[in-house]
Amino acid sequence: MRILLINPNTSVAMTERMVASASRSLAPDVELVALTAPHGMPYIASRAESVIAGAATLEMIATHQGGVDAVVIGAFGDPGLIAARELFDLPVTAMAEAAMLTACMLAQRFSIVTFSPTLTAWYEDAVALSGLQGRCAGIRVPDVPFASINDVQSELESQLVELCLRSIETDKADAVILAGAPLTGFAAKVAARVPVPLIDPLDAAIGQATLLARLQTIPARAGRFARPPAKPGTGLTRALGAWIEHRPM
Amino acid sequence: MRILLINPNTSVAMTERMVASASRSLAPDVELVALTAPHGMPYIASRAESVIAGAATLEMIATHQGGVDAVVIGAFGDPGLIAARELFDLPVTAMAEAAMLTACMLAQRFSIVTFSPTLTAWYEDAVALSGLQGRCAGIRVPDVPFASINDVQSELESQLVELCLRSIETDKADAVILAGAPLTGFAAKVAARVPVPLIDPLDAAIGQATLLARLQTIPARAGRFARPPAKPGTGLTRALGAWIEHRPM
Amino acid sequence: MRILLINPNTSVAMTERMVASASRSLAPDVELVALTAPHGMPYIASRAESVIAGAATLEMIATHQGGVDAVVIGAFGDPGLIAARELFDLPVTAMAEAAMLTACMLAQRFSIVTFSPTLTAWYEDAVALSGLQGRCAGIRVPDVPFASINDVQSELESQLVELCLRSIETDKADAVILAGAPLTGFAAKVAARVPVPLIDPLDAAIGQATLLARLQTIPARAGRFARPPAKPGTGLTRALGAWIEHRPM
Amino acid sequence: MRILLINPNTSVAMTERMVASASRSLAPDVELVALTAPHGMPYIASRAESVIAGAATLEMIATHQGGVDAVVIGAFGDPGLIAARELFDLPVTAMAEAAMLTACMLAQRFSIVTFSPTLTAWYEDAVALSGLQGRCAGIRVPDVPFASINDVQSELESQLVELCLRSIETDKADAVILAGAPLTGFAAKVAARVPVPLIDPLDAAIGQATLLARLQTIPARAGRFARPPAKPGTGLTRALGAWIEHRPM
Amino acid sequence: MRILLINPNTSVAMTERMVASASRSLAPDVELVALTAPHGMPYIASRAESVIAGAATLEMIATHQGGVDAVVIGAFGDPGLIAARELFDLPVTAMAEAAMLTACMLAQRFSIVTFSPTLTAWYEDAVALSGLQGRCAGIRVPDVPFASINDVQSELESQLVELCLRSIETDKADAVILAGAPLTGFAAKVAARVPVPLIDPLDAAIGQATLLARLQTIPARAGRFARPPAKPGTGLTRALGAWIEHRPM
Amino acid sequence: MRILLINPNTSVAMTERMVASASRSLAPDVELVALTAPHGMPYIASRAESVIAGAATLEMIATHQGGVDAVVIGAFGDPGLIAARELFDLPVTAMAEAAMLTACMLAQRFSIVTFSPTLTAWYEDAVALSGLQGRCAGIRVPDVPFASINDVQSELESQLVELCLRSIETDKADAVILAGAPLTGFAAKVAARVPVPLIDPLDAAIGQATLLARLQTIPARAGRFARPPAKPGTGLTRALGAWIEHRPM
Lengths: 249, 249, 249, 249, 249, 249
Fold this sequence. Notes:
The structure is a homohexamer.
Chain A: E1 2-7, H1 12-22, E2 31-36, H2 47-64, E3 70-73, H3 81-87, E4 92-94, H4 95-103, E5 110-113, H5 120-130, E6 136-140, H6 152-155, H7 157-169, E7 175-178, H8 186-190, E8 198-199, H9 201-215, H10 238-246
Parallel strand pairs in A: 1-2, 1-3, 3-4, 5-6, 5-7, 7-8
């Protein structure tokens, strides 16, 4: 089974770190193919940047969907997720949604811990999109800045563990999602120091994409994810323009 | 007062029709400046197309924001609305949100009537984003297709009036929003045939933008619409890239 | 355009202050006509008092509706708002509802700051009536009393600004409504000291009434705001009794 | 135990019918004292009329509260209920709220059947006030008019039974509330023809008032039902004005 | 009128305390018949234990339902409540549901104060089952342990009163439910020290059972509480097995 | 990886059918171990029966948890699910919850189609427990009875497909869950006749259990799924009694 992991950020280093971390919980028959965004921002962290990255995500899937069994959008905030489900025939998962749905089987209320206050609004939107507000105990962020996004796990380790503990004691969370692609792999590192399950969103997203591929359900031909009618566009990338204008119905 | 009307579709004819219709309910001191999207689709009608148009909307505002008092996004579905509020210092309104908020002062529950089933999912998302699901009586669409989007008002006139009546009788709506840029001006035409207020989303969006500009509130420097930190991007249009990288804080 | 501003309190001084403040953001073609309640309480501040003031509001509109384009109920808590929409043919707005709907275009979550804990329950009811609970970050009040309702703005200035700041930092509000007729005009005074938009409910209510009047929608003849059947009453004021018994259908 | 039954309508015949019907399920130690509104409308049937009747209800309780253990507001729609709880020290119940809360112990979802479409909006507001929307299966009304409100039970008997059956089959209700003071006593008459529990709102409201009186809880001195500060009023009835200005704290 | 009080715990001492406390607010014509669970745990305090006790509750009702007018399940958390309503023809109430519904007539928002953090999750589930989350201000528990469940009222008296006060001041509750069978009778003891109504769940549950019995509604023969089809079972107690297999329809 | 599949019904034939069907989408490294309930009902179909089966489920897990990586409760309605998560250290999934969470990645709104109206109330409770009511388009059941639960797939095949189509067209579902253990395997049979994804709950539950086991999260030692304190019980099965009284903390 081939799963396409889309990194909607332009940082190749982050893509490599995600692939390394993901190998830990892959099913034995899964092969991961990873892509880095060719344009955009090195790390998207707002709704505005997510709109721009969402368009890039659609372009990347349009270009690389051949021979793939499922797609994972590798950013918490899920840029382009709904649009991708509408446009393509493959199962598509993303880090925020998959982490929250997975958490619902380990917790009645989950919290989200991340590394920067800038991210909060974007992540709140992801919670709202899922319809799981009633099961979200809150989002917690450190009140100290970090120097480098590549080292955020080590720079903020004690603060992030402390936020996990406060989300349990104060917010009454039963599980904690460690959110944001730069925190990939962090859950496993600190699991022994937090008394509830910690969710790694990339593991969850790849696991759920694997599950969906195994179910072999048909693509929607009706409802909210039926494809919109074909139409011509101007100024789109070649593969995306062609798929929108000529895709098989 | 200058209000910038962004048409995120590439159809100049639609822009012209919107400007003509809007003049009917402008305040005496308002000047409307209209723009048509330089690339994208002639008529966006899905979440996938809205993601692409949202990115284009941000580019258009970045380029043309000088000397403007408020911005109106001229598509029901509100592509790029939240992103634009986050990124720019101007008040920004859009057709779906403005129509729904306005309807809340004329109705306890409003319905949305539009011209194509393809639009339903996109409009549902706009309702959910507003948090007004509890006041939305439903979305109704004709079960007959139309030949030309430019003539959809005349082609479907009787069906649309009939849907208004059914949304009142069956769905228990107290006001009806006639949704989608191609229906701009239709509310005034058929008002005498429907026994509740009909909302024209473009009138509402321009009226609300005018109101926001008059209030002269400051741009947010905290909260969900505080600007994200500046950062470099690759592959963005010149004005948007410059604004994201160098905008004043 | 003539807009009737109803002060449901018996304080003429407050009416005068509201008129003076409102002139700042009126559209150039709007004339404001203000009325003070002939009986009731000098300042209504509870649900019980609001029921009594609601009946007085209906009497005032019945008497003075001639030649008017829209009505504004000049109390946060909106006494008689739904009843007035049901009974009369004019657009009617009120301070709480208009402030909240306006805030929804400047914020994803708004808070309400007011000057007395007595008001909290009444304002909570107004939030619930609007269906916007999901967008309200909370209501904050000072924990110190004030000596005179006429001087409450100057007496509590620093406390109210502090509450605005706490509603942003603690409650995560993106805009703040300064609620209660005695705070009319306060938003403009302290805007520079609070890093998010501040909403003046009277400005919002008059602005929204102006907008509704411009839209020229028809009065409801069906749905929740269709007029109830005419019937005789005993013990009502002359104009209200006549309107209820003989109003044109 | 003395329970004061307030009929906020001016119809003495209706008061008498309510007293007669209520005697069926009174506890052995309860004495019912009934009052008819001295001014207002013969039968209130809208939110506007309910505002007027709410003020009258407060006047009636202020005048007659001496020696009473609990108060029942005898109209479905509950005019003045929240205001009365705020203002007086006695337990107060009302027909809509009591019927819905009682139904929650016999059903997971209840429906409301009443005799006139005019009442729907008012009753919907009562459902919303209770916070029980999630347990309300809907409100059903006949599509035929009635000639006399005094004979509405016999005129519409078959239609009302049919609506009960449809609310079970179509709306999936598990119990039905027969709403509106003119339907008092109807539930018992037709119980054998409907396969789920039928709730008589007056029985429920008197039963709940009895229960509250037995519990002997103290009046609130904090929270949403703490009494607002005393203040002078103009144009109020003598007893209500005195209570608002001089009531013991 | 005979009311069957089921104690789903195996502690006879607790049953006796409940009977003694309940006599305080019984209607004059009510006789209480109390039963203690023959197997299970001395005090159930979790969802797992509640599932086990729920099955025991059904067995006890099946065995002792003859000659009874209504049933009260004497544990806050309401083990087996929905199942009992589905299976038997008698009105059934339980402590959590009855306390919350009763509180809704004395408060707009109630809080729940109990004696052990272990109980929180179970009680949260009871709130959710009722659909009254919007009216629950929260659940508060002491942060100190107790030595004996029989003496918990005296051991924790000052802490529990303090929690009541904090739920009013911090959580904005208007009434407080003192939850858990071991707190039966505690509300009356400390009422003078808390400025809002205190609800005793056992009093509420017996009062509501009395009220339901007086209403003499028919058992459901349709809807969610219609009896499931008869079927054979293996390994059930004799009375329950016989009722499930042979009960009259 | 070993996954324990609990059939809480007493029908061995159903267990065998579930195991056969599940083998279709198992990951290559998963071994399924299946158990049939030793007492209870041949097919549980109500909340009352689910309470009884929930207690039996706990007994079965207590006895057979050794050497197991995750548990699947093989009944839609999820008897004992929350209790099992509270009591045991293994990941536990169940058919209703897993099917709904999985559907959320293929649909914005899912519907549930099952084979008997008796099941509706039980399944509604499962939807409510998940907090996903906002994403559930409804539950549909045939209006014709079936002769044998073992042949329900063939007896009702055309009716069930028709209900799937109606849930898409009328209820606006984007995916359909085919609910109830007797429908295991039916989704694959009829997928080509329904234009949206069909979810097989057993496949979803086993897939999610597999995913949870791969994540290797720690058992909760805090929050809603922390184990309740050990205590003695009377009348429990040996393994369950021992686990409740002596389990390691």
